[in-house]
Design brief:
heterodimer, A: alpha+beta, S16 Ribosomal Protein, Chain: A, five-stranded mixed sheet, 5 strands, rod-shaped, B: mainly alpha, Small ribosomal subunit protein bS16m (chain A), ribosomal protein (chain A)
């Protein structure tokens, strides 16, 4: 009996030697408006052309309701996965986010990077704010010291500067509490303005 | 007058109205509403009742088939030249039978009367470590239904990954949107158009475009969508108030309206309307349906067999029905019945039955197309 190899024939038909099937994103859409089709092609073919099969779509930009939309033909993905096609990293990431595959380690790496950037931003803003505050307090201290110096010269030598120093510490403490409130505002503004995913 | 209509529009609507009651209301201006909108009872589950064969056949018989009206109601995009053909009698019968069958198949696609669907939300996984990556919610739909044989909307998988990193099944609104993106239905918009806002609806209803609006609603929403229920309820109440049942007779919405009215115990106006138009066979069927819906056994109780349509059974049924009515209505109904008896019941019944037999004969004719 001749074995029925017809079902394997399609895998043997290769357009060029060393061709491998790959599941990846093909970028369609327009300038500044990407739209990806998730697609099975041979690995050396141009990114957008000569696809073997379309498995889904991915719209990275949020729609009117603020969602990114993903559609995938899970049956066919399963089929291709069984037969050993390569999946590129972004496709695997998406599948992990969706829950069909486990979460890709690169998403965790990305998450860490983003949190680190956020913290750095916050640090920078804090430092800036503190610098500004220090300048202001320095100015205030200088003014007060000039005034108090004049007073001392005019009146007598034994005058304590304690009440003025207490006032200065109190203002610094209140400044610290106000700092966080004011910082949160500026942080949110900076986040919105930033192009990166911070 | 309280109408917002211009003079010409007023005359147009006046001519379109099929009932003296509605004409009077239009003239008076419907300001002070003594009309109590009907309330749907919550203890009866309407859907299994609605889908029974007996109920469906009764609704089919009540709506009948009116080819002229449906031809008028069709939206015409281009002015078509009329096609004239000389045709032998047999061929003519065949063509008529084709059109009847088409009509009947359209009427049988009536929107079922269901309860509002329930909200589902189920958490599948929690991954707060991904949260920084998710700037927006990710709406995922499984498009593998294209390659599968089963196509029910309820089986389609729609899942959302939140900005906090929780994976959950989507809410009903998200599901609708996602299914419309991936499996679009022709005529449906993803975000509901301003056609269904109350002011615009009211505008359309004032011009007596009931079946037009109902068709649009059927296209946009599924029958168990709460918006669908709200809008259809509004329209049916509007029709009830004006007693304009004839506007829907012959369309596929008549059956659902009749079912809705008998559920809410407001079938009296419809019965009166039928008696006025001398559709006695329809009255008997409708009262049987009403008794069935409100019998103690509910959906398990079987529909009483269609006894012969004659004077005796008519009087029997009307007697049984009028036990439930009280006061003014009873007197009105009794008057109607008396006038009908004087006019000659058996002849009217014969006419109605002959009409029904005509329709049946056309439907049973063998044709190539349908």
């Amino acid at each position: 009996m001749i074995p029925d190899l017809k079902k394997f024939a399609y895998r043997k038909m290769k357009p060029y030697p060393g061709a491998k099937l790959v599941v990846r994103m093909a970028r369609y859409g327009c300038t500044n408006r990407p739209f990806y089709q998730i697609v099975v092609t041979w690995n050396r073919y141009p990114r957008d052309r000569k696809i073997k099969e379309q498995l889904g779509f991915y719209d990275r930009l949020p729609n009117l309701t603020g969602e990114q939309v993903l559609g995938l033909n899970l049956d066919r993905i399963r089929h291709h996965f069984k037969h050993g096609t390569e999946f590129t990293r972004p496709v695997l990431q998406l599948l992990g986010i969706v829950g069909y595959f486990p979460i890709h380690p690169y998403t965790l790496v990305e998450a860490k990077r983003i949190t680190r950037r956020r913290e750095e931003l916050e640090q920078k803003l804090k430092e800036k704010y503190l610098e500004e505050k220090e300048e202001e307090t320095d100015k205030i201290v200088q003014d007060e010291s000039d005034q108090s110096g004049e007073e001392v010269k005019s009146e007598s030598v034994d005058i304590d500067h304690s009440p003025s120093t207490d006032n200065q510490t109190k203002t610094v403490k209140s400044d610290v509490t106000n700092l966080e409130e004011a910082l949160s505002e500026s942080i949110t503004i900076a986040k919105k303005a930033s192009v990166l995913k911070i | 007058m309280s109408c917002n209509l211009s003079k010409a529009a007023f005359l147009q609507t006046f001519r379109k109205l099929s009932c003296v009651h509605s004409q009077l209301l239009l003239l008076r201006g419907v300001h002070v509403s003594q009309f109590k909108p009907p309330v749907v009872p919550t203890d009866i589950d309407p859907f299994p009742l609605f889908m029974e064969e007996g109920v469906q056949t009764i609704l089919n018989d009540i709506t009948g088939i009116d080819l002229k009206k449906t031809a008028l109601l069709q939206p015409k995009k281009l002015p078509l030249k009329p096609v004239l053909r000389a045709v032998p009698d047999k061929e003519l019968k065949r063509l008529q039978a084709d059109s009847f069958k088409k009509e009947r198949s359209k009427i049988e696609q009536r929107p079922p009367f269901m309860r509002a669907r329930k909200e589902i939300s189920c958490e599948l996984a929690r991954n707060p470590e991904i949260a920084p990556v998710m700037t927006n919610n990710l709406l995922f739909i499984d498009t593998s239904a294209f390659t599968r044989s089963e196509r029910a909307n309820k089986d389609k998988v729609v899942v959302v990954r939140d900005t906090e990193g929780t994976l959950r099944t989507a809410t009903q609104e998200e599901r609708d949107r996602a299914i419309q993106i991936a499996f679009p239905v022709r005529g449906r918009t993803i975000f509901p158009s301003s056609f269904f806002k109350p002011e615009n609806l009211h505008n359309a209803l004032q011009r007596c475009r009931y079946s037009y609006v109902l068709d649009k609603v059927c296209v946009q929403y599924d029958p168990d969508h709460p918006e669908f229920l709200r809008i259809t309820k509004e329209i049916y109440d509007y029709i009830l108030e004006r007693r304009e049942f004839d506007a829907l007779r012959g369309t596929r919405h008549f059956g659902s309206m009749a079912f809705y009215l008998s559920l809410c115990h407001r079938e009296y106006e419809l019965v009166l309307d039928m008696l006025e138009r001398k559709l006695i066979v329809d009255v008997m069927d409708y009262i049987r349906l009403h008794r069935k819906i409100h019998s103690q056994e509910g959906s398990k109780g079987s529909l009483s067999k269609p006894l012969g349509y004659d004077k005796k059974n008519f009087e029997k049924l009307m007697g049984l029905y009028m036990k439930r009515i009280t006061g003014n209505r009873k007197k009105q109904a009794e008057k109607m019945v008396e006038s009908l008896l004087e006019a000659g019941l058996p002849e009217i019944i014969k006419e109605n039955l002959s009409q029904r037999e005509l329709i049946d004969s056309y439907l049973k004719l063998e044709t190539n197309v349908y």
